Amino acid sequence: MLEQKYQKQNGFCFMLLVFVVVQSSLLTYDTGNFALISSGCKNGQESTQTVNFNGIFYKIPQIILGLEHVDQQFPTDFRVTIQNVQKTSFDLYVICPGAQSVIGIKYQWYAIDDDRIQVINSFNNLFPTVQTFNHQLPSATKGIISIISFGVGGTMDFLLSITSLTSTQVTVDITSATSIKSLGYQVILGVEEAFQDTQIIHHTQTYTSGAIVQQPKSWFFLGYCGMAQEFGNGFRQKFVRTSVSQSYTVTTWYGAFIKAHHIRTWITYQFTTYKAFECYTIRISQLFDLEVAIKPQIYIDIGEINQSFSSSSEVVFDKPITQLTISTYMKCAKSKKIVSKFLKCESCSSKNYYQFTHYCHGTINEINYFPRYRLNQLVYKQLNIEILSDKITVTQPLRNPEVTNPVLIEIKIQAL
């Protein structure tokens, strides 16, 4: 019996060990390069090619493309779409509608599974204009644009730029788009630390970057956000990276130099782990209020932003806050009790909350809670406040690799 029990326990431990090892070996970020076209493409030719990751992702990642090599006749048109993104690979579909040949197209690709970056794909826009996109990253403070395909019918000289970024929308403007037949691009949004040392560089001749300081846990991204070319000339340009000292050049071959705007930046692939506010002190008062009848059943005050709430709301802090006071007021009726909890330690294995129970009776008709929270991270912060007739819940959405919603405050009115 003892031997069988020991064997079962060891079997369970072995299975648990295998699960932990397998899970820890799954990817959350990856990068590589890929030649989409290498032998010419024209007259409606199309193809779909698969790009394999260097392992298996835990979840399906987002894909970012940096166009680093273009070799094509002029006028030209090639249209690219990212398709069928899986945990092990993604597909690139390309079609070349024009009569002039697209000789070579190469990308540096980046795959990331992290909710602090959002990629918006805008594939193959015909005769593009200003566009506004909805996004799901309210903490986004920065963004970049990467052109991934284009088709032109004449002299071109255009530039894409982000002109507005709010908590729900981003607007992309385009200048001098008259000769553009099609344009595909990505808008990559991120939290404050997602992009470092971003520069948009207008080059009219061979460009050499010089040595660039490596940023930790980041990819060095190169791509285009604008191009200029005279009608009739071929379009040949490429980025050449050097690895001994981090640097690159932008060069043209067999023809006039292509004037362009390129973007360079460091894209973070491993972020700071964002944490929740934690309550370090709380004061509670029980009283009989003669004016309780004219007050809401439940309402809260947040002193740091000088706002009060008596209905469900979302609060976004537009300035750094490390201390937070959330004063909560509850009516307390006879034959009721109020059960409350306040987050004191998100990472503790047990006793994560301060918990209280208060009873209502003839001499108490209001209970007030004055918890103080602190968090030393100077990052984006958001609170979601849900107020019902008998309950209030305050959560703090945290965008780490996955979105979590730790509960800072939960107070419920219950029958005895």
Percent of residues in helices? under 10%
**CATH first level of the largest domain:** Mainly Beta
Net shape: elongated
End-to-end C-alpha gap: 49 Å
CATH fold naming of the largest domain: Immunoglobulin-like
Quaternary structure: single chain
Query: How many domains is the backbone divided into?
Result: 2
GO molecular function: carbohydrate binding
Pfam families: H_lectin
Keywords: Membrane, Transmembrane, Transmembrane helix
Organism: Paramecium sonneborni
Break the fold down into its secondary structure elements and pairings:
Layout: H1 2-24, E1 29-37, E2 45-52, E3 62-72, E4 76-83, E5 89-96, E6 102-112, E7 117-126, E8 131-134, E9 142-152, E10 156-165, E11 169-175, E12 180-190, E13 195-203, E14 207-208, E15 218-229, E16 235-242, E17 247-251, E18 259-268, E19 278-287, E20 298-302, E21 307-309, E22 313-317, E23 323-331, E24 336-343, E25 353-359, E26 366-374, E27 381-387, E28 391-395, E29 398-399, E30 403-404, E31 407-415
Structure notes:
- This is H-type lectin domain-containing protein.
- The protein has one helix at about 1-25; strands spanning about 30-35, 45-50, 60-70, 75-85, 90-95, 100-110, 115-125, 130-135, 140-150, 155-165, 170-175, 180-190, 195-205, 205-210, 220-230, 235-240, 245-250, 260-270, 280-285, 300, 305-310, 315, 325-330, 335-345, 355-360, 365-375, 380-385, 390-395, 400, 405, 405-415.
- It contains 1 helix and 31 strands.
- The longest helix is centred in the first third of the chain and has 23 residues, at about 1-25.
- Residues about 1-20 have low confidence and may be disordered.
- About 30% of the residues are buried.
- It has 2 domains: about 25-270, Sandwich (Immunoglobulin-like); about 280-415, no CATH class.
- The radius of gyration is 28 Å and the shape is elongated.
- With about 425 residues, the protein is mainly beta.
